[in-house]
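PROTEIN DESIGN WORKSHEET
SECTION A - STRUCTURE
LENGTH: 248
TOKENS:
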């Protein structure tokens, strides 16, 4: 399978603080990765390294693709008086060129992207008037409008109510036949999502696993090893071994 992005012994620091250490990860065409971990564990930093916003102090990152779609955690669109079409067209802005002028092809690509997320009927609506779930779909369309082989999503359900999350995960899953996806989340309920091929737990270090099962080692990396008392979470895992795959 074709490699899209590869990280080799990557470490990243903010000043003297180690955020990521010795990260090895390979994203291949057709993968659907979910990255979990605690707040401040380095998940967002990992995505920014993949897309090229940040550079590692140690190690190497190899990008085998030219176009990577990226949906950041913070919504920077709703503060501007933009229509849905305007918001998607922002994904066609070329930072190498001065000014913003969109061609007929740009608008056609934007409409195609809105069709992919089933939002083309809203293209003239003000973006700020949409629901949280609808806004997330439009932001994904913005990430898709550059025709990426790889789509990076940082907490895409952070502004969506719990009942809507499961529908949103199913929607994301439907994109995977055409686009490779890496999605960051702290929500472990997403492990029931269909079509997940790999899961990674990040908290300074990384543990990866094929499939969507969160292993005991991943729980320990996220929450620490509790040996001095009975931890309800670890106790639940050990009492339900049929739901947990222990990696070697």
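SECTION B - SEQUENCE
RESIDUE ASSIGNMENT:
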């Amino acid at each position: 399978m074709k490699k899209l992005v590869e990280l080799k012994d990557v470490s990243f620091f903010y000043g003297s603080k180690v955020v990521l250490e010795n990260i090895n990860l390979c994203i291949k065409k057709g993968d659907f990765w979910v990255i979990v971990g605690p707040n401040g564990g380095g998940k967002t930093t990992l995505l920014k390294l993949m897309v090229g916003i940040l550079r590692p102090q140690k190690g190497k990152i190899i990008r085998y693709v030219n176009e990577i779609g990226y949906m950041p955690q913070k919504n920077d669109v709703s503060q501007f008086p933009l229509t849905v079409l305007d918001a998607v067209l922002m994904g066609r802005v070329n930072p190498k060129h001065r000014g913003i002028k969109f061609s007929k092809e740009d608008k056609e690509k934007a409409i195609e992207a809105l069709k992919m997320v089933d939002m083309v009927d809203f293209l003239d609506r003000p973006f700020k008037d949409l629901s949280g779930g609808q806004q997330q779909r439009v932001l994904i369309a913005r990430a898709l409008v550059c025709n990426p082989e790889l789509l990076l999503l940082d907490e895409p359900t952070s502004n969506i109510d719990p009942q809507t999350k499961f529908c949103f995960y199913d929607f994301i899953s439907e994109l995977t036949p055409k686009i490779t996806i890496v999605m960051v989340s702290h929500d472990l309920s997403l492990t029931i999502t269909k079509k997940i091929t790999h899961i990674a737990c990040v908290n300074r270090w990384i543990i990866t696993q094929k499939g969507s099962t969160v292993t005991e080692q991943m729980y320990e990396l996220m929450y620490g090893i509790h040996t001095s008392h009975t931890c309800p979470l670890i106790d639940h895992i050990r009492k339900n071994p049929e739901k947990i795959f222990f990696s070697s």
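SECTION C - NOTES
The radius of gyration is 19 Å.
The longest strand covers residues 3-14.
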